[in-house]
Design brief:
Two copies of one chain form a homodimer. By secondary structure, chain A is an alpha/beta fold. Chain A is 41% helix and 14% strand. Chain A has ten helices and nine strands. In chain A, the strands form two sheets. Chain A has a six-stranded parallel sheet with strand order 1-9-8-7-5-6. In chain A, strands 3-2-4 form a three-stranded parallel sheet, sandwiched between helices. In chain A, helix 1 runs parallel beside helix 10, helix 6 packs across helix 7 and helix 6 crosses helix 10. The interface between A and B is medium-sized, with 30 and 30 residues. Strand 6 of chain A pairs antiparallel with strand 6 of chain B. Chains A, B: It comes from Paenibacillus aurantius.
Chain lengths: 282, 282
């Protein structure tokens, strides 16, 4: 009985998050505070430029301010860090997003670390990660937080479930593993050196694909009834999951596009509003 | 053919670590630096007092200085934080150990956070944890680092292996999961809400028991040939693993006592020496 999976509609989840932000933004406005996200783009990678533009547009539509900083390809780490420090000190900026990836000549970790924890709305600093892992974070990384928000919206419980996360990057695989663990899931983190990946995925009640390889997760890797959350976004609007093949096997699945992506952006906006609420213009 | 497992002799590993420290301590001495560990004990729990005394004695035997601070049971969080700040600012102190657990009236996390990252030789701060998870830490938590040191000493490779960690505490289960992941193991983190724990442990090439329950891990939970690392230390010198039952099933196993425990102390000494080498008297 290959019944089609429940579609986890990211657009709907994103809209419901943004809906809750509207009156909070209005209340801030009455106090003379316009939440503002600064985006920093280094170089001229076209898809990075597109992402940054999408985020700026999303801010604008909701009445969140945005400040766009574009730096040339040959920017040094020191120059980028200095730019971030200026944004840290700017009282009208509540959140800072450094678009990933930066050109290879820059020490990305050093640049991320320069973002002050109060403005790290994208959840990229090591301290932000640790606070996420210990359940103390104001602003966990946006994509992991989006995955948890989708689960919450659709009342998918993590407690006692076995979650298999494929990927271990500092802003995706590691924090989503930590967040699922804090929700009382049993968590297995897999990666490129994992042996027997399909058999491990077959154990999962919840599969998170965060590997950056198009249509990597196969339908026959799934336990019937698994929940599939696809954080991948590869060229051609393709996720990390073979969506068609998984549709008849999963009990619920995020599509790509219109799955995790829009919720990630809504989460970034939410964090920016929360930063403005928490820290004001200082 | 129930062949007995290789005994992973923690005393031997600890001695070999301490052996490497001797000439480093001497070299520091020639520069007028005596590495010094400050231990902070709050209240009068007898086993905590014993642990602190053991650590102080271990320092003394090796020529590492120790400073013993004992605070009364009714110390406030603010007083404890103030004590830690004074130790942070004391140029003759290179490492600070706050003995866990502190009395329930104290905010232990806040106290841990007060330890400056340069002196966090026990690896208890959130920033220290994050740096461990990202493979950047100077001083990962001592027990996880001890487990990795035992594996290294006995040439037990983690890469590509499936490690099952039972426990998710901030200074044991979480960091040892992170460190094994960074060694390219596939890591499953289990805990009190995990369902079907025995079946998960049966998948493991490497089992880390960090649960704090005497003889919890049973012999029939093991895959034949698994490596068993027992970080438990329960009343009566009993580990978290049913040692006798696992001995005929595992390929290698740490005893309790004389397993992970002595290596944890040797790691603490090593970190103190490294802190003195790195930061000197400042």
């Amino acid at each position: 009985m290959p019944n089609n999976a429940l579609l986890l509609d990211g657009t709907k989840v994103a809209e419901s998050i943004k809906e809750t932000l509207k009156e909070r933004i209005q209340a801030l406005g009455e106090k003379g505070i316009v939440p503002c996200l600064a985006t920093v783009l280094v170089g001229s990678d076209p898809s990075s430029a597109t992402y940054v533009r999408m985020k700026g547009n999303a801010c604008r539509r909701l009445g969140i301010g945005s400040r766009r900083v574009v730096l040339p390809e040959n920017t040094t780490t020191e120059e980028l860090v200095e730019t971030i420090r200026e944004l840290n000190e700017d009282p009208a900026v509540h959140g800072i997003l450094l678009q990933h990836p930066v050109p290879a000549s820059i020490d990305e970790r050093e640049a991320f670390e320069a973002i002050s924890i109060e403005k790290d709305v994208d959840g990229v600093t090591t301290l932000g990660y640790a606070r996420t892992a210990f359940g103390l974070a104001d602003f966990p990384s946006c994509t992991p937080a989006a995955i948890l928000a989708i689960m919450k919206h659709y009342r998918i419980e993590a407690e006692g479930k076995h979650a298999v996360v494929i990927g271990r990057s500092p802003i995706l695989g590691k924090p989503v593993s930590a967040m699922l663990l804090n929700e009382n899931a049993t968590v297995t983190t897999c990666h490129s050196r994992t042996r027997g990946l399909p058999d491990l995925v077959r154990l999962a009640d919840i599969v998170v694909a965060a590997v950056g390889r198009p249509r990597f997760v196969q339908g026959d890797w799934l336990k019937p009834g698994a929940v599939v959350l696809d954080a991948g976004y590869n060229p051609g609007n393709v996720g990390d999951v073979d969506y068609e093949a998984c549709l008849g096997k999963a009990s619920a699945i995020t599509p790509v596009p219109a799955g995790v992506g829009p919720v990630t952006i809504a989460t970034l906006l939410k964090h920016t509003v929360e930063a403005a609420e928490k820290y004001g213009n200082r």
